[in-house]
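lol ok so funny story. i was supposed to be doing the assay writeup but got distracted and ended up predicting the structure for this chain instead. priorities right. anyway since i did it might as well share w the group, maybe its usefull for someone
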Amino acid sequence: MTMSTRSLKQAMPIVAAALGRKFGVEVRVGGQEAFTDGRTIQVPALPDNRALLPVAWGYLAHEAGHLRYTDFEVYQQAAAESDALQANLQNILEDVRIEQALAIPYPGTRDTLQAVCAQLLADGGLGAAAANEHPGRILSRYLLLALRHQVLGYEGLAAAAKQAERVLRAVFPARTVHRLQGLLVEARHLASTAEAVELARRIRCLLEAERQADPAETAITPDSRAETPTPPETGAEADGQPSKAPASEQTQATDGHAANTDGHPSGPSGGKGTQTDSDSDFDKSAPSNAASPSALADQPDAVVSADSGHGDSGSAPTGAATPDNGDPAKHAAITQALSASAGDLPGDLFAQVKTLLEGASADSQRCILPRPEPYQGSASAGLRLLARVQPESRRLMARLQGLVQASRFDRPLPQRSGTRLMSKRLYRAALGDPRLFARKRERIAVNTALHLLIDLSSSMRAPVPLGHGLERLRSDIALESALALALALDAIPGVSLAVSAFPSRLGRESGISTLMRHGDRARAKAGAFVQEARGGTPMHGALWFAAADLLARPEPRRVILVLTDGKPADREATRALLAQCTDAGLETLGIGIGIDVSGLFASAIQVQDIAELKTQLFGAAERLLLAA
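and the output, tada:
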């Protein structure tokens, strides 16, 4: 990914990591694919053209909504038992449900998701279906556009939603449309995946009942009193009870002026992004108690157009059929919709987004932001390591504490008054110097966040002779030194440390092993410091991970320390990223084990004798903290 001069805080991996933290999901940036595996969301690395970045954030928000709110077991089982149409309906309803749920804690996601719809609309992938297209496609497009416009409040889809309704009314019988809209009132009140699945079943059941009805009965007249069918599985509806509370009692939470939580302007465009039930076209087109499908039988029938906003009832004499009464083409459209194959229906909306992002991805397959892989390790191995490390760590900790504490005070300065005499200056009184009192003030305490990156590439397996025929691996010495430092810094107030190792434990650059996070106690994480060396040297991705971590920290001073014995896999990208870190106020220090890393790091230390690594690492930490 070519680096630009824009702020590091606006770079794609940093924003993606921040969004992942807010949504409570793991995010990986890199490669040329967009996908989620149920735990992690990957978005491809995009070039510096920022036009598609809002689409990438929308994709991330949508998939995060699924990870947070979708019951995948229920969803997948229902999809496996459904035909193509019901699976399509289920997907549309669940997408709308999770986006509505996500907008409550994160109102800024409305804008990012509207940006996705705007992009697809501009590309021609989200418009209304034409009247000559397959009826299943016409129905699906109507639901997709109408629900996103009326339930989610995406105002940019208003014109497309109205056109989709015109086409729907031109192709399907009037009563079918009317009863469908009665069911759609419930879409804004779905509270679970199971409810979305059930509503999809009921919509299909409605279409099946309409297909079996006499075509002459599918016109809306004052004599039409057939109830909306309900599947046997539906509980409350079978008893004639509404499945939801009246629409007037349930209003969607709005937050048009709320502070944005994902870095984008908050609230929908123009402040109209969220509607109450009384604003919905579904509510105006359905009877006032349309939340209960069976209640349709007790209401005067009216056909409401999204264009007019008022009904057609009374336009025909009592008992007369509307013009589409008995229209075989419209009745046949129901049958065609029910028998639609997957190829007849529009694909998943965010499958289109996935294709769009993958087509615009950078050429490199390299991972930019690796996924964190927490590692606990063996408790018994951790205890053995602690036994080796603690004696020396205590001595170094006492020294570090003393140095830091001493540096927190200014040297006493003489002044004319005070409560503390300077005995060494008493002789100055005979010389007429009245400055005999000491002035001493505390400096600001240490307030520093550090992220220690440990290179565990295959070259760290090299043995190091210790004398008397003994030898140890470079990786073991590096991890032991890191644990000793972590134990010592645990006792320093105002210092927060995170420790990570690269590549992942399986040697993949797409992951990074997290040994300690900020706030963890080193003793409790000792087992994670027992690892083996593996793989290459993806330092570039590890630096992105550390930078994203530190930029989210509140401490004013933030430092990245890197222990490495080799050259990074992408030297130029690593150098450019280190320069960006410096520009963003992050300090970087490279500790080269048997190698000079001053060509990469502005501040660098070269350790020729690996046995001295612990001493050098503590010395570096002392200098960093004393300079705070």
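The CA atoms of residues 97 and 190 lie 6 Å apart. The radius of gyration is 33 Å.
back to the writeup now i swear
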